[in-house]
Amino acid sequence: MDKSDFKRLSRKQIYQGKVINVVQDTMQLPNEKESLFDLVQHNGAAAIIPVDSEGNILMVEQFRNPVNDITLELPAGTLEKGEDPLECAIRELEEETGYASNDLTFLIKFYTAIGFCDEIIHIYVANHLEPSKQNLDDSEFINVKPYSLERLIKMINQGKLIDSKTITGILAYKQYIETNKN
Amino acid sequence: MDKSDFKRLSRKQIYQGKVINVVQDTMQLPNEKESLFDLVQHNGAAAIIPVDSEGNILMVEQFRNPVNDITLELPAGTLEKGEDPLECAIRELEEETGYASNDLTFLIKFYTAIGFCDEIIHIYVANHLEPSKQNLDDSEFINVKPYSLERLIKMINQGKLIDSKTITGILAYKQYIETNKN
């Protein structure tokens, strides 16, 4: 199987929204048949694991429309078109948590919903946090709360952390800490 | 902050695709302002960590349109509307890998892209695999390959596994194995 066996014959514009653009692709498959694929295009996002001087992780509480509930997540934000994910992480850390850092280390990146969406989330660990100023726009309502890594791992096992970037970020950070200890 | 401070005033239907439905919600925020939110609705999916008699994990290679490339992932499939995720996992395991199992254990579930999409992926560990028959529809082209857990962890650290369900599933499975050993 080779990717050249799959050919995009056409792309139809469906919907331009605020953070997503939806297109419909007609693909030719290896058996020469044609098939339609919906594709949600997204600029991507950056998430941050902000580690304070006591080793706690700053988490954010916010309302999420898809869940219709308040969630607890890693701070994160959407990339501007073509933006460097590290720049986005530095900005979103300060805007959402009110702490600044120039000590960010890339941890992991991944496609969130690879079946139908091209969004990539880039996750960074931020150390040496300096108090700055939270800067939310008037549609953002965010509470910041510190949690120990142990407590967050327990919350993952209890099903209390519910989104891919938060779970993946915390599990990858645990592994990163353990590897760097040895 | 309470979820009742966020009210959906209206929902506009935008696009019904094969696996996604797109709507646009007008929400009232705690400051009484109105804001538009795009929402991608999805039935959800089930993914499987199929563990063979030697402890290897059966992975699937397939073409992915959003990436325009061949990827290596955990086997997975989309839920029928209202389908029990466990039923879906049992079906997709057999269809995609050609192995059947009745020994599935729930591992973890999560929202893939919680900012704009309601898709939940449910991940199960499948043991006691029995050879059956791969059953792909004529738009599916899938190769099945066994990998050791150690190799998959290394591939995550090298950035060679790229999607949320595969990375989260493998990291959560490693933790599950380690916890059950002790």
UniProtKB/TrEMBL annotation, chains A, B:
Gene3D superfamilies: Nucleoside Triphosphate Pyrophosphohydrolase (3.90.79.10). Keywords: Hydrolase. GO terms for molecular function: hydrolase activity. Its cofactor is Mg(2+). The keyword Hydrolase applies. Residues 40-169 form the Nudix hydrolase domain. It comes from the Bacteria. SUPFAM superfamilies: Nudix. GO terms for biological process: nucleoside phosphate metabolic process; ribose phosphate metabolic process. The keyword Heme does not apply. Coiled coil: none annotated. This is ADP-ribose pyrophosphatase. It comes from Natranaerovirga hydrolytica.
